[in-house]
Write a structure and sequence with these properties.
Distance between the termini: 57 Å
Shape: elongated
Number of strands: 17
Bound molecules: calcium ion
Largest sheet: 6 strands, antiparallel
Number of helices: 23
């Protein structure tokens, strides 16, 4: 993990290096830019991102490893030149040892504290994903695909080709950061997306410090806001389902809120260069996630309303806001253009399948964001109660003391964020589902910023009141040291209410997070190995059908093949949804095959695990294995790749045992009683001298043991067929005497109803079993069809139709103690549709 942390810090420093020269140029003389080093670094990261974004948006294919590497080196070199003087000074100061003066020591330790909190956050989050191959099969798979096409094209292309015909209308600023990082991290793209997202989530802790300073608090107070984001708030730590660009933009949103707040506070006009810079930064934030820019716009709107209603004036801000937000559309413009041009197409994007079923609304109630924000204050009841207590206590405190001068600005600002987020989430409820550019989900998390700001305000208020009270009430004995003691006591008191948060964050959250990541992080090592194998061995033309909640969604970014479909608008294709449902229901009929052919599918990927959360069921490999319409191409454990070789939809299962490992088609061995049994593939004893399955069983006689059975079983799936036939080749002649019996059993999945077909033995094991069918010989080819078909036999025996899912068993009973040897071949189930 240490290496990983170092790698992530390297990415951070590279971004800082890239951003610094331009930031130096832009932010040097602005009113709102009296920045301390942490703020500078914070801005650098995103200015760096902005520069890379511009490189990637331009259609000159400049975003390739050579150009990016040269550019990075050059920028870092420039940064050094710019700061040569400062560096020299610092070096001199270090020499004369007056660097760590009293004032500096305090500042220095605050920086260290922020860095430590950032690192702890990072470690907690990284620890929780140590056992995961990749993150969310949905969000991270599609974001990885976006990154993949940026890397392949050297810029942000118009569509996701060759993987998908859909256009890219989703702004790609975060993906450019992922793409950049993947040049420096030797990892698969989905891993880059996962880890860089975590890095930026942790960066929120630093950004909170930035916000605190910009809200007008000094460093020692601002560090408290960092603390709230690092140890108290559930967000952004618990964003585990993906939402990667949202997480990448979150720190920048805090930064922009900070800059915006200081713009609102400052007097006098701002220069155009200043507004332009701010506009670009806001626009870049919008290019990461539009929701953030929307919130800033709505905040601006409310500020203007406030001026008109309360101060009866059209504010000087009107002009400034117009400039800022017009400029902010600039970084978004390529995608706005695509959005408007492609809006006329079905599903509002080019390349969406013609059987698109339409967008579904994600928002069920108007107050969904609000409910969500309060339901997700914390995963733990105790902490939920504490957070609510903090907020209530804060309002009680300012009401009782009537002193809110120091926190007035922060409360106003927190409220306006809250109201704006709520207004947007209300709006999104009324927007039609196919115009889903306002997201209630984003607003729900943005509301947590308000809650964090209020918690922050509570700490400040409580600290001030408590220490004031203590100063006045401490006994005279300690008079001289009152100040110090009251500070210490205040600190201890506030620490006491904070301890539960620390405990949960450090001791419980790493595991809770692991569980939360597990909901969508279902990729196993087997899935990954299979994709790696496909990367080397599978034809580029393959089109692979994947389950919408399985690891196969990562195929484009790992093995670089086309899938049907990536997590995009295309999954709302009626054919795709139908075929997914049919396979989930284990129905492999003409419709299933034709839908696959219609979708151009050449292969099917069956992953080892599925994300269950949204009611989707797994595709079982038993449905494909042994089905002659699919060829097993490769498997690692329970992760399978099949090739569609559509020949005859009537054959459900055909096993000729022409392979080496007996349970390749997922036959399962079982035994009853005490004895020795074995199953294997053997040569030459099968049908026409071919390979076959050999089952041996031998009872070990003891006083209480008088039988032994060994057999194999397999689940079989049929459609709603009128006639299900069974045929097989059998040789059950060696070692059978007395009551020894070989039998074929067809059972329902509960095994409380079984159809028995047994070898010719009037005194066999099944002599008292009602309706048992007796074979006329014990060697040869047997077929059950017509009025002897499984469907008819089942109907006669149980007066109900044969289940669509049943268990086929071959079992060899030994009661005489001499080894039974059975050869089975050409097991075939077919159905007449
Ligand atoms: Ca054979
Ligand atoms: Ca025997």
């Amino acid at each position: 993990m240490l290496l990983l942390i170092l790698k992530l810090l390297l990415i951070l420093s590279l971004l800082i290096g890239i951003g610094e020269p331009l930031r130096f140029l832009f932010f040097k003389r602005f009113k709102f830019s009296n920045l301390d080093p942490i703020q500078v670094c914070m801005l650098d990261v995103y200015v760096g991102g902005l520069i890379l974004y511009v490189v990637a948006v331009l259609p000159f294919k400049l975003f390739n490893s050579t150009v990016i590497l040269c550019f990075t080196v050059l920028s870092i070199f420039l940064s050094f030149i710019i700061h040569l003087e400062t560096l020299k000074e610092t070096a001199n100061m270090l020499k004369v040892k007056n660097f760590v003066t009293r004032v500096n020591r305090k500042t220095f330790s605050i920086y260290v504290l922020v860095f430590v909190m950032f690192t702890i956050f990072l470690v907690i989050n990284l620890f929780s994903v140590t056992n995961f191959v990749f993150g969310s099969v949905r969000d991270e798979s599609i974001h990885s695909l976006y990154v993949q096409v940026i890397l392949e094209n050297g810029h942000i292309p118009l569509t996701l080709q060759p993987y998908l015909r859909e256009g890219i209308i989703y702004p790609q600023a975060a993906h450019v950061i992922f793409a950049f990082s993947s040049y420096f991290l030797s990892m698969e793209i989905p891993q880059v997306v996962l880890y860089i997202t975590i890095l930026f989530k942790a960066l929120a802790v630093v950004a909170a410090f930035f916000l605190g300073l910009k809200l007008g608090f000094d460093k020692s107070y601002s560090v408290v806001l960092s603390f709230v984001f690092a140890f108290i708030s559930s967000w952004p730590l618990f964003i585990t389902w993906g939402a990667n660009p949202f997480a990448v933009g979150f720190p920048l949103f805090l930064v922009c809120l900070g800059l915006f707040s200081s713009l609102l506070k400052s007097d006098g006009r701002h220069g155009y260069a200043e507004l332009l810079t701010l506009g670009l930064l806001f626009g870049y934030l919008g290019a990461i996630i539009i929701s953030y820019l929307q919130v800033l716009m709505v905040i601006a709107f409310f500020v203007l309303i406030y001026y008109v209603i309360v101060k009866h004036e059209v504010s000087r801000f009107l002009c400034e806001f117009v400039v800022i937000f017009c400029v902010s559309l600039l970084p978004l413009s390529p995608f706005l253009y695509r959005f408007f041009v492609l809006y006329q197409y079905p599903g509002h994007n080019i390349g969406i399948p013609s059987d698109f079923m339409g967008w579904k609304s994600q928002q069920l109630t108007i107050t969904q964001a609000l409910q969500w924000a309060f339901n997700n204050l914390s995963p733990y009841i105790l902490l939920q109660v504490l957070v609510l207590f903090f907020i209530v206590a804060f309002f009680v405190l300012i009401w009782r003391t009537r002193d809110y001068g120091d926190v007035k600005h922060i409360v106003t600002f927190a409220s306006v964020i809250f109201v704006s987020a709520m207004a947007l989430s209300f709006l999104s409820f009324f927007l039609p589902a196919d115009f889903g550019i306002v997201s209630w989900g984003h607003q729900g998390i943005i509301m947590s910023i308000t809650i964090n700001l209020l918690i922050f305000a509570f700490y400040i208020k409580a600290a001030k009141i408590v220490s004031k009270w203590l100063k006045n009430h401490l006994p005279h004995v300690v008079f001289n040291k009152r100040l110090q003691i009251s500070s210490v006591l205040t600190f201890i008191l506030l620490s006491l209410v904070t301890v539960p948060f620390l405990y949960y964050r450090l001791a419980v959250d790493p595991l809770s997070l692991q569980g939360a990541y597990g909901v969508y992080g279902v990729t196993t090592v087997d899935d990954y190995d299979l994709m790696l194998w496909m990367r080397e061995n599978l034809s580029r033309n393959a089109v692979i059908l994947v389950h919408p909640y399985e690891a196969g969604l990562f195929i484009p970014s790992v093995s670089h093949h086309k899938i049907v479909f990536p997590y995009s608008g295309s999954i709302l294709s009626r054919r795709y949804q139908t075929v997914v449902g049919l396979i989930e229901n284990k129905t492999m009929n003409v419709t299933t095959y034709e839908l696959m052919r219609d979708l151009g599918v050449s292969h099917v990927f069956v992953g080892a695990q599925v994300a269950w959360s949204e009611g989707y069921f797994m595709w079982v490999p038993e449905l494909f294995l042994g089905n002659p319409n699919f060829k097993l191409v490769k498997n690692f454990g329970r992760a399978y790749l099949f090739e569609l070789s559509y020949t005859d939809p009537n054959i459900v299962f055909l096993d000729d045992f022409e392979y080496e490992v007996w349970d390749r088609n997922l036959w399962q061995g079982f035994s009853v009683g005490q004895g020795l049994g074995n199953v294997s593939i053997t040569e030459a004893y099968g049908y026409n001298g071919s390979n076959c399955l050999k089952i041996t069983s031998k009872m070990l006689p003891t006083v209480w043991n008088w039988y032994y059975a060994y057999g194999v079983s397999r689940e079989i799936f049929v459609s709603n067929a009128s006639e299900v036939r069974l045929s097989f080749y059998l040789d059950a002649t060696q070692g059978f005497s007395g009551k020894d019996t070989f039998a074929v059993l067809i059972s329902n999945v509960y095994r409380n109803q079984s159809l028995v077909v047994a070898t010719n033995n009037p005194h066999g094991v099944y002599e008292n079993y009602a309706g048992a069918v007796v074979l006329d010989r014990s060697e040869g080819f047997f077929e059950f069809k017509g009025n002897q078909s499984l469907s008819v036999l089942w109907q006669e025996r149980f007066n109900s139709t044969l289940p669509n899912q049943f268990i086929l068993e071959f079992v060899s009973w030994d009661l005489d103690g001499t080894d039974n040897v059975v050869y089975i071949d050409n097991v075939k189930i077919n159905e007449t549709l």
